[in-house]
Specification:
The protein is an alpha/beta fold and 202 residues long. It has six helices and eight strands, in the order ααββββαβαβαββα. The chain has a six-stranded mixed beta sheet, with helices on one face. The protein has a two-stranded antiparallel ribbon with strand order 2-3. The protein is globular and about 40 Å long. This is Alkyl hydroperoxide reductase.
Length: 202
Amino acid sequence: MSRRPRLIPAALIGLVSLGLVLTGCTSDDPLAAQYREGSGKGYIAGDGSVTEIAAEDRGESVVFDGTLEDGSTVSSADYAGEVLVVNFWYASCAPCRAEAPDLKTISEEFAGQGASFLGVNVRDQAPSAIAFNESYEISYPSVMDVDDGGLQLAFSGSIPPNAVPTTLVLDSSGRVAARILGQVNSPSILETLIKDTIAEDG
């Protein structure tokens, strides 16, 4: 499969995020509109667009730490030297549920092959996350980020803060190499992004 076009330099991603935060204060805020309409949908879904970032345009390594659903801790240092796929989600998010089987399959495909997966649950408490993972047979862990938003803050220069789901591929240096904004609609695209990022160290 040919490489997809590189859309946004890393330096601009933070500006995009800042713009979204600022526009969230206006009357055009989608979350506010949903609240006024009483839809209760509670999430802003991306459009599934893919952004690849050339190695020379990537920002600093993302440093993070958090608490997993089982109460243990995790940090960026635990994934040093390997590709890491980070998926932002929560249990009642419809596109998160739709992409869960694909993420399960892809995470198993790359287990022990140079890439790990880490979820970031932005809304639930641990019991809900555990029930979700059991239902979809997902074995990779998730950080429970609802209380302090530490991981969302760590990645705030790389993802729009209200886009759920979002999937990031970090290179072996911990820099964001690619982003899927919204549901992973094509598993083959995520597989290719991961393979390409792993191959950079080859």
